[in-house]
């Protein structure tokens, strides 16, 4: 079943938090986002995530945006756009 972009973003963050052994708080600190912004992204209460926000999240994981988006979650066949 296709995901929304917001759902794919939340899933990717959860996946990387587990893989890197990070907390959401640490990601927020590393990325420069507020904890509440990150919480809203994770709970999918933000309707449209900006690319600039996604770039900050990727940098919080010490990744490029390309590395962050390199996941089947973001394959257009898996997304409901």
Q: How would you describe this structure in keywords?
A:
single chain, 81 residues, mainly alpha, 434 Repressor (Amino-terminal Domain), 5 helices, globular
Report on this structure.
This protein is mostly helical and 81 residues long. It has one domain (5-78): Orthogonal Bundle (434 Repressor (Amino-terminal Domain)), CATH 1.10.260.40. 58% of the residues lie in helices and 0% in strands. The protein is built from five helices and no strands. It has helices at residues 5-20, 24-31, 35-42, 51-60, 65-69. Helix 2 (24-31) crosses helix 3 (35-42) and helix 2 crosses helix 4 (51-60). The radius of gyration is 12 Å and the shape is globular.
Question: Mind sketching the topology for me?
Answer:
Elements: H1 5-20, H2 24-31, H3 35-42, H4 51-60, H5 65-69
* Strand content range: under 5%
At CATH level 3, the topology is 434 Repressor (Amino-terminal Domain)
Unreliable spans? none
- The outline comes out as globular
Helix amount: 55-70%
Number of separate domains: 1
What Rg is obtained from the alpha carbons, in whole angstroms?
Answer: 12 Å
How many beta-strand runs? 0
Mean pLDDT: 90
Total helices: the number is 5
């Amino acid at each position: 079943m296709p995901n929304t972009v917001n759902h794919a973003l939340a899933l990717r963050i959860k996946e990387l938090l587990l893989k890197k052994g990070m907390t959401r708080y640490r990601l927020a600190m590393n990325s420069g986002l507020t904890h509440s912004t990150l919480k809203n992204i994770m709970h999918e209460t933000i309707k449209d995530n900006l690319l600039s926000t996604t770039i900050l999240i990727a940098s919080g994981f010490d990744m490029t945006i390309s590395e962050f988006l390199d996941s089947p979650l973001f394959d257009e066949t898996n997304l409901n756009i």
